[in-house]
Specification:
The chain is an alpha/beta fold. It has two domains: 175 residues, Rossmann fold (3-Layer(aba) Sandwich), CATH 3.40.50.300; 67 residues. It has a six-stranded mixed sheet, with helices on both faces. The chain is globular and about 55 Å long.
């Protein structure tokens, strides 16, 4: 079967011809967990927007399930860095929102939303408002909202960047559990080497000016991954390889600037 996500020489240029992303070629197989790693401003989020069909390539092709990404050919959800919850709505109504927009009746949408909240450990917070939730709970709510539509592809744009390290690690584990349970394809943007290696089967390393792919590295660590993995020598070796690729890309960018 062809990859579910394909980018072939994808480029994005701004109005004055400045390239945000240049010559980006990569593919993600169905069911894979792949991270996009790179420094701030290197075009990671732009690549994610291309895959989501929220931006159009200036050149090249971006295909999902064999069709142009702009056609939204596969069930897909997008998790932003900010939870973007409606402050006047309960967690239940926030999670049910995509189904309500799609035309589902309130009882049906609420039933699905309760199941999604339970899946991320928030069954007892369904009637809470965002102001009553911690930062980690808000992000769990955002992930539940992404899961409620039963997507086959989940795109995540640095969703845990603003969280403390302990909460971040717990949500990493929760995300992996949902990825495995639901056979999702995940494309995850981060600037953390450790997070990318812990979560992923592959890490796509980017450098900027313009944004481009400089390495595609496999992470040969078995699943399920637990806290002990972070202390293992294979994990540290993988982090070292990814860090070195990131440094090479950054050095090449500086030399060409």
């Amino acid at each position: 079967m062809p990859p579910i996500i394909e980018l072939a020489n994808a480029e994005v240029k701004f109005g004055r011809g400045t390239a945000a992303v240049q010559g980006f070629t990569a593919a993600v197989e169905a069911g894979q967990f792949v991270s996009l790693l790179g420094p701030s401003g290197c075009g990671k989020s732009t690549v994610l927007r291309l895959v989501a069909g929220l931006a159009a390539p200036s050149d090249g092709q971006v295909r999902v399930a064999g069709k142009p990404a702009a056609q939204r050919p596969a069930p897909m959800s997008y998790v932003f860095q900010d939870p973007t919850l409606m402050p006047w709505a309960t967690a239940l109504d926030n999670v049910a929102l995509p189904l309500r927009i799609a035309g589902s009746r309130r009882p049906v949408a609420h039933e699905a939303a309760r199941a999604a909240l339970a899946a991320v450990g928030l069954a007892d917070r369904a009637q809470a408002y965002p102001a009553e939730l911690s930062g980690g709970m808000k992000m769990r709510c955002s992930i539940a909202r992404a899961l409620v539509t039963r997507p086959s592809v989940m795109l995540l744009d640095e969703p845990f960047a603003a969280l403390d390290e302990i909460t971040r690690q717990r949500l990493n584990d929760d995300l992996l559990a949902q990825w495995q349970a639901r056979a999702l394809t995940a494309l995850f943007v981060t600037h953390s080497v450790f997070e990318a290696v812990y979560l992923s089967q592959r890490v796509l390393v980017m450098a900027g000016r313009p944004g481009r792919l400089v390495a595609d590295l496999a992470v040969a660590l078995p699943y399920p991954r637990t806290a002990s993995v972070r202390l293992s020598e294979p994990f540290m070796q993988a982090c070292r390889a990814v860090s070195e690729a990131l440094e090479r890309g950054t050095a090449a960018t500086g030399a060409g600037a």
